[in-house]
Amino acid sequence: MKIERLPLNGLRAFAAASREGSFKVAADRLGVTPGAVSRQIKQLEERLAVTLFERHANGVRTTAAGRRLAEDVDAGLARIAAGMEAIANITPDITRLLLSAPPSFTQLWLLPRLADFELRHRQLEISIDASQALSEPSWHDTDARLALRYGRPPWPGVSTLPLFGDVLVPVCSPTLLDHRPIEQPHDLLAHTLFDVCWSTSGSGGFPNWRDWFAAAGLAGQPLPTLRHYSLYGLALDQVIAGRGLILASLPVVADRLVSGILTCPFGDRWMLPSPFRYELVIPDNGKPPEGIREFIDWLLDEARQFSLTTPGMPEP
After folding, report:
1. pLDDT at 204 over 60
2. Per-residue pLDDT tens over the stretch 54-66
3. Contacts of 173 by beta carbon, 8 Å cutoff, 6+ apart
């Protein structure tokens, strides 16, 4: 019999009835009425010109012909079901990206923005290596290794795509100002100041509190004791708790300023331009896979929009 002419509904009803030994139970399995199962099997028997079931008061039992057909139909339906399951479980082509980035920038700028991109790009699997160390970038047909870096370009042996420049701003918790208002730069001398120590290859000459006070007209002024930390996250925890101020990279704290968790007591005054930049480090040869290209385009667009909409940021 040609495949196009197979009575599939009748064969499904027959297979269910032969397994269950009951038209009623088969109907329950198939979500139809017992009468529908009986009619489909009757039509199948008439089409084959053979009796498939012996009917009796307690149910039905397959005949010899019915048992033979049941074996073939069960095997065929099982193969169809397995084929459909295999197709449904096929994993789309996955492109994998390992992205290395500074911990504080990753936590406070990248991750809040990355979630939406990942929802729209299920075929790109992104792993984050929160590290200050510069790893060698590479890309192949289905995977890539890139890096986000903060420092003073150029980076030797690689290509870079600029995200945005940086400015440093004093920030603190709003609760700190409730107790000791800050109106002028010299007011900071009465507060605890937190400092982040950078130790990457591109961190030489990173501006600090002394540079900020000099730019604010207080060069040579004795500074209070500084509290030194190696990570922004640790220092920010102290600042958010109202224990002092930090001279922060604006991209790192911008979302906290918008939410009101942190505040800049001087607004856009006395911001200190930094010679450091945030850049995406990529291989200096070859072409990225399509999924990686989409990520790069998205990241550059996010960076541009951030620069345009964040007061105090350098123009892109």
Report:
1. no
2. 888 777 888 888 8
3. 239, 240, 241, 242, 261, 262, 263
